[in-house]
Design brief:
130 residues, alpha+beta, five-stranded mixed sheet, 36% strand, elongated, tetrahydrobiopterin biosynthesis, GTP binding, hydrolase
Length: 130
C-alpha cells in the first residue's frame, strides 16, 4: 500500500521545475501511452491505463521523463480518473505556463470489471484542455 500511495510524499511541481530548459521550440510536444496504475478511492480497487499528454511550449521545455513522473505522482494516490486528469493538467499548466496543454487518460477500472456491472471490456476516457 505504501508504494501505491507514495505520490502523497512527492512534489510534482518540483519535479517539473528541476528540468525546465529555455527553448524557442513552439510546436506541440506529445508523449503518448504513458502507463499508469492507481487506486479508486471509492472501492480501493485498482484502475490502470494510459495517459496521453501534449503541450505547446512557451519559451521553456521540460525533460521528457518528467511528464511520466508527474503522472506517477498523481496516480500513486487514492484517486478518481476525473481528478487525476485535472491534477496532471493543472500541474503542467501552472508550472510550465505553456501556450496550451492537453491530457487524455484511457483506463480500465477493476471496480467496474469485478463488481457492480462486471463489464470486463469497458474503458473510461477523460480529457482536459487548457
Amino acid at each position: 500500500m505504501l508504494f501505491l500511495t507514495q505520490g502523497y510524499k512527492q512534489d510534482a511541481v518540483e519535479i517539473l521545475k528541476g528540468a525546465m530548459f529555455k527553448e524557442s521550440y513552439d510546436d506541440m510536444v506529445i508523449i503518448k501511452n504513458i502507463e499508469l496504475y492507481s487506486l479508486c478511492e471509492h472501492h480501493m480497487l485498482p484502475f490502470f491505463g494510459k495517459a496521453h499528454i501534449a503541450y505547446i511550449p512557451n519559451g521553456h521545455i521540460v525533460g521528457l521523463s518528467k511528464i511520466p513522473r508527474v503522472v506517477d505522482v498523481f496516480a500513486r494516490r487514492l484517486q478518481v480518473q476525473e481528478r487525476l486528469t485535472h491534477d496532471i493538467l493543472e500541474c503542467i499548466n501552472t508550472t510550465l505556463k505553456p501556450q496550451g496543454v492537453a491530457v487524455v487518460i484511457e483506463a480500465a477500472h477493476m471496480c467496474m470489471m469485478m463488481r457492480g456491472v462486471q463489464k470486463q471490456n469497458s474503458v473510461t476516457t477523460t480529457s482536459g484542455f487548457r
